[in-house]
Amino acid sequence: MNRITQLFNIQYPIIQAGMVWVSGYKLASAVSNAGGLGLIGSGSMYPEVLREHIQKCKKATSKPFGVNVPLLYPNIEEIIKIIIEEGVKIVFTSAGNPKTWTPILKENGITVVHVVSSATFALKAQAAGVNAVVAEGFEAGGHNGREETTTFTLIPMVKEQIHIPLIAAGGIATGQGMLAAMVLGADAVQVGSRFAASKESSAHENFKNLIVAVKEGDTQLTLKEITPVRLIKNKFYQEVQELYKSCPTTDDLKTLLGRSRAKKGMFEGDLEQGELEIGQVAGIIHEVKTATDIVTSMVKEYEEARIAIQNNSII
Q1: Quick one: which H or E segment has residue 142?
Q2: Are 282 and 139 a contacting pair, CB within 8 Å?
Q3: Which residue of 1, 54, 89, 95 is surrounded by the most CB atoms within 10 Å?
Q4: C-alpha span between 281 and 279 (Å, rounded)
Q5: What's the gap between Cα 136 and its chain centre?
């Protein structure tokens, strides 16, 4: 056991990211049942839809699971109220100030983890009283940090600064990646893209199939003026790049983005006009697997890589 498996009472230090339009109760419960920690992604759910997913997740697993909450989203008060009412014991917060809700969540017996993209924000999260932080590198899918710090440099930088448990995210989809992150100082890994392309993911089949077709260089971080997001280079992405040529204002970019663009792409399967968020690591994801197979293979790969390094010791 390590600090994260003890903190969450889970078998393996593998956390499934709470992604919008992808992470419903089916995925969260499957990952938890496989020995990791599943997270419901509340960012794409109306409050009552979230309540329904929490209730269904409780029926689908007896293991610990959590909810990811983007703090800047509307209905945040109602979302927190539902999480407390439903007895959720683990909450991962992101996209906002952890000082606002961490004390309230902890008062209700909830373990709180905050997602950061820099050592500076990791220190602020620690000062806010969170139990652990997720340090997410530039490689990650979805919303990202503006600093463009890669996971391999971010993890040791954050490790130097904090004393609470550290979870690595961004570019991790294999057991070898998990071992590398933990050698650099992480206590666990958070995995997004690999679980987005799982059988239990609520992503549209079109999007899942595109993830496994993505190659190196097919994604890019963009829209930094609004919220940095890593997108697959589809027709919508090309329209964004064309708009940049005219030196657009933030309002111009928001107008092009419009509403429900991510839902259109990831949930409804519009591969042309949808916003398709995925990490760089999609380039090594070649098939849609069950969540159990993903967790099992990551653990096996981790052990094999650890033994191989010991056998090829240079010391």
Answers
A1: strand 142-143
A2: no
A3: 54
A4: 5
A5: 8
Please give the domain boundaries of the chain with CATH numbers for all domains. 3-202+290-311 (3.20.20.70), 212-281 (no CATH)
pTM exceeds cut of 0.90: yes
Q: How far apart are CA 114 and CA 131, in angstroms?
A: 8
d(CA 125, CA 157): 15
Residue carrying structure tokens 């206590």: 187
Nearest 5°: phi and psi at 109? Answer: 75, 25
Give pLDDT tens digits for 148-167: 899 999 999 999 999 999 99
Please list the residues that pair with 65 across neighbouring strands: 38
Question: Where do the H-state alpha helices sit in the chain?
Answer: 3-8, 25-33, 47-60, 76-85, 98-107, 119-127, 151-161, 175-183, 193-196, 205-213, 235-244, 250-257, 261-262, 291-311
Return the ∠ at Cα 208 (arms to 301 and 50), rounded to 5°: 95
d(CA 70, CA 114): 10
Q: Which residues pair with 221 in a beta bridge?
A: 230
Half-sphere exposure at residue 15, Cβ-oriented, CA atoms within 13 angstroms: 36
* Region of residue 26 (phi > 0: left; psi between -120 and 50: alpha; otherwise: beta): alpha
- CA count, 13 A, side-chain hemisphere, 235: 7
Parallel/antiparallel/unpaired status of strands 219-222 and 38-41: unpaired
Sign of CA dihedral 83, 53, 9, 31: negative
For the stretch 280-294, pLDDT in tens is 999 999 999 999 999
- Residue 247 has φ and ψ, to the nearest 5°, of 50, 65
